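Entry 12.
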Amino acid sequence: MSSAPTAAYDFIVVGAGSSGAAVATRLSESGAYRVLLLEAGTEGSGYFWSRIPAGVSKLIDNPAVNWCFSSEPDAGSGGRRIEVPRGKMLGGTSSINGMVFMRGQPQDYDHWAQLGNRGWSWDDVLPVFKRMESYDGGSDDYRGRSGPLRVTDTARHKVPLLEKMISAAGNIGLPFNTDLNGPSQEGIGMSQVTIAKGRRQSTAYCYLDPARGRSNLIIQSGAMADTLVLEGMRCVGVRYTVGGVQHEARATREVVVSSGSINSPKLLELSGIGQGELLRSLGITPVHELPGVGEGLRDHYSPRVKFAITERNLTFNDNARGWRLVREAMKYAFLREGFLARTAVPIRLYFRTREGLEAPDATISILPFLYEMVNHERRVAKRRGITMNVNVLRSESTGSVHIKSADPTAPPAIRFNFLSTQHDRDGLLAAIRKGRELMAASPLKEITGEEIAPGSHVQSDADMLEWVRNNAETTYHPVGTCRMGPDPMAVVDNELRVHGIAGLRVADASIMPTLTSGNTNAPCIMIGEKCAEMMLRAAAGEQRAAA
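Predicted 3D structure (tokens):
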């Protein structure tokens, strides 16, 4: 492998995903600092499908724009490998995800602060959430109006089935919630999405595209990070490979790893930061013993509960095939409307699974169609029906992500350890039963056919859990593998600085101490915004001290 000359920057950001794009954009905003943003992926043909909301079906299993990781078999997944898609293009997973915008509950962030992470309470992060979004609804107390990220409401009346769901939810005690990101998350509500005028609002589009013309921001795609460059206990740069040529970039101020919950711990371990015994077993010389690297993995484990729908023209199954699909394509081409312009998950429920809880602890996200796998691609099925993604909000089962090789191109071992706590098992059973209760309520019950999965014959706790083990997927929300905190198993402090290594921060979902109550894309962007804010404040302080 050949090498290129070393280049110097003020800041280097590794990973151009939900967090990294926000970090790099904000660091370069003033023009005072030279910033290098490294991204392993290249846009290629994925850019076209990423623009179209329904294009997620072309991206979720596509190795050209997706790392296509899979987990190690374990008892909680019935010995199966579970798909772990992660974005591999500018915008990262925000360029291939379902585009749902959920900040989570105030209790999520207050818990982070209670764990010793000063500056991460709800009152601390709410201004950051408001600064990053542009949303027309809700209250000014909760919502932002002029941020770079455009957030919109899914149209309520475009899919008749959804009105029946709202009525049925009301009949089982779940009222309609006009703003699931407002003062309360409880109830049934339309998904808020990062879609505007029929276009996906990824961080590549909302953050990086407006910043591309800055002379002080260098965006290098196709750059595989090999290792961090350490001098003593300080990070001074990154070695990365582009097209078979290894480069080294130096950071005069700081390096930020924003490679996500799978690749961030991987890069730290490749650089000698982590569990010494593991690193030595792979021929890597330990530089800094940090036992929490790669530990604490959490995700939303989600069985797909499916029901047949007996009435025509209520689900997307009738409108996404044959001549009707051509009609939908024309709608999108000329009006930016229709099935292709929407999220696949337009409506969701948040509820409490037992008495005495302060806030919802479970959710059901509803896809108004059935899908099937054809040639490794998700397609709308011929049969009419709905799919419910059911999960506990704050899962307590924890796993790990660790390298299996010193080769930077080798995927790490992902171990979820799902269903390993009673809390998760009980909550998931209650949530599945809530889905059944919804479908048995009027006016849904009049149009509901058979329960396709798990099937009405699966009733006992044991049988339901066995079905979950053998069939559940995740909702693609891995967090926690470089956890923030003051304890010995934490990897970063409340300023996102890696414990024991100067000049190095981590900013992405891996720093989350616990899962948030919903989709993780919005919290990841918030983390990127907040990290840049802290870095700029530190740089300004250093400049004042030097003066």
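Annotation: Residues 521-546 form the longest helix (26 residues). The longest strand covers residues 245-257.
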